[in-house]
Automatic annotation (TrEMBL):
Family per similarity comment: Belongs to the parvalbumin family.
Lineage: Eukaryota, Metazoa, Chordata, Craniata, Vertebrata
Any Pfam family hit: EF-hand_7
Database matches in SMART domains: EFh (SM00054)
UniProt KW keywords: Calcium, Metal-binding, Muscle protein, Repeat
The organism's place on the tree of life at top rank: Eukaryota
Protein name: Parvalbumin
SUPFAM superfamilies from the UniProt entry: EF-hand
Record flagged with keyword Calcium: yes
Gene source species: Danionella cerebrum
């Protein structure tokens, strides 16, 4: 399964263009622009599984840096500031990683 089987390529492009500049990434805005906020909880879970590069059941800080590149190989990496802000926004239990439920809560809230 790929992200483009869940989200439209045009929506992904729009979301990526919106955050091309360093320190301009906003997870909630990105999820809205790429159409993820309109998807079912199961589709959001499927996206999480694609983004969980090492299949650990969590998206760790190291994986978050390359978050945009999971949507498009040519996208930039997130800055340290963006990575930490993204983690802080989603990591409800403060364990330093984002679980499926935390990801769903951030996307669908």
């Amino acid at each position: 399964m790929s992200l483009s089987s869940i989200l439209s390529a045009d929506a992904i492009d729009c979301a990526l263009k919106d955050c091309q500049a360093p320190d301009s990434f906003n997870p909630k805005k990105f999820f809205q622009l790429c159409g993820l906020t309109k998807k079912s909880p199961q589709e959001v879970k499927n996206v999480f599984n694609i983004l969980d590069n090492d299949a650990s059941g969590f998206i760790e800080e190291e994986e978050l840096k390359f978050f945009l590149q999971r949507f498009s190989a040519g996208a930039r990496v997130l800055t340290d500031k963006e990575t930490k802000a993204f983690l802080a926004a989603a990591d409800d239990d403060s364990d330093g990683k984002i679980g499926t439920d935390e990801f769903q809560a951030l996307v669908l809230s």
